Inverse folding.
């Protein structure tokens, strides 16, 4: 199945959670804001929300310094 | 008819700024016509907006406001003078954003930080060496008052959390995220986008070191939500935070906030 991540079509295995995919991308879960189909996810939802075919995700990754 | 320090005044042909000064503001030694400083012997002409200022004298609130009016594009000051802006974090980003917005005369700033000024902050943050050990909220409030005492400054002295951000900043028009740690940056954005819909948001990510100026961008995330930075240069050992590049990012933030206030974007 396919999802759109930051505008790019990405192939994903079935039964993948948001957390699985963030880890696959080697992202630190604590530093990413995830928008799924226009809604901002709570961090607790990363582990439970299954990616579905056609889902549109925006990942906003933060880097330290200020 | 001309205007002298805001008052309509009749004038004769051949009147110079120095003549106006002796009549309306004895001792004035700075002369501004239509927003530009001019010499004392400049002739005034019909419709001129003249400001006579005594160097070293602190202008009153209405004078200060008028000075900003005359410096800025028409219409700008009316839109920003009643604005309310929240700033989360008063380090290299937040202290610079606050200075920039106070200089242009925004209405109110709500400043939040839990920390004190440390010597290592002085390489980029808008504090003075004699302020080491003071709360950043108090120190910055003092410094802003020395620039423009007519900007209202409120402070929140304490730790920000995903839970308390929506409550603290519920009345701001635009919220600047100027925090240091990446996890807190993510939490702050989640809090604002979930609980403060309609509030403008300008965050920052990636501004350490002394890399290329021009890879620092203002990226639109969604309507009225932006993140500034190169999205790569992390503050870590061997790549510190320094005034020049952090300042570039901070001024991207400040200008984006101004654009949101002016409804340019």
């Amino acid at each position: 199945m396919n999802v759109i991540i930051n505008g790019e079509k990405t192939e994903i295995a079935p039964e993948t959670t948001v957390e699985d995919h963030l880890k696959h991308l080697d992202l630190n879960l604590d530093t990413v804001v995830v928008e799924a189909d226009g809604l901002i996810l709570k961090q607790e939802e990363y582990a439970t929300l299954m990616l579905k075919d056609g889902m549109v995700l925006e990942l906003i990754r933060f880097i330290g310094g200020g | 008819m001309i205007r002298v320090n805001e008052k309509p005044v009749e004038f004769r042909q051949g009147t110079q700024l120095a003549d106006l000064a002796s009549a309306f503001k004895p001792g004035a030694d700075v002369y501004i016509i239509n927003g530009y400083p001019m010499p004392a012997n400049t002739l005034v002409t019909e419709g001129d907006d003249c400001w006579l200022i005594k160097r070293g004298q602190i202008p009153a609130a209405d004078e200060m406001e008028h000075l900003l009016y005359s410096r800025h594009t028409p219409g700008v000051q009316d839109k920003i003078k009643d604005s309310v802006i929240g700033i989360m974090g008063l380090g290299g980003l937040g202290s610079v954003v606050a200075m920039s917005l106070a200089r242009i005369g925004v209405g109110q700033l709500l400043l939040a930080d839990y920390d004190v000024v440390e010597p290592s902050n002085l390489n980029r943050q808008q504090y003075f060496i004699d302020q080491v050990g003071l709360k950043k909220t108090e120190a910055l409030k003092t410094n802003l008052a020395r620039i423009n005492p007519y900007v209202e400054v409120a402070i929140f002295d304490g730790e920000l959390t995903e839970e308390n951000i929506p409550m603290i900043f519920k009345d701001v028009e635009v919220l600047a995220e100027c925090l240091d740690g990446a996890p807190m940056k993510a939490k702050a954005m989640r809090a604002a986008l979930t609980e403060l819909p309609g509030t403008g948001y300008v965050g920052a990510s990636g501004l350490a070191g002394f890399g290329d100026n021009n890879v620092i961008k203002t990226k639109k995330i969604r309507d009225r939500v932006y993140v500034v930075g190169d999205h790569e240069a992390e503050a870590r050992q061997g790549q510190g935070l320094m005034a020049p590049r952090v300042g570039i990012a901070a001024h991207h933030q400040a200008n984006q906030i101004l654009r949101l206030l002016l409804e340019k974007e």
Observations:
- Helices of chain B lie at 17-24, 61-71, 76-80, 94-104, 136-147, 165-168, 182-195, 243-261.
- Chain B has eight helices and twelve strands.
- The mean pLDDT of chain B is 94.
- The two ends of chain B are 39 Å apart (CA to CA).
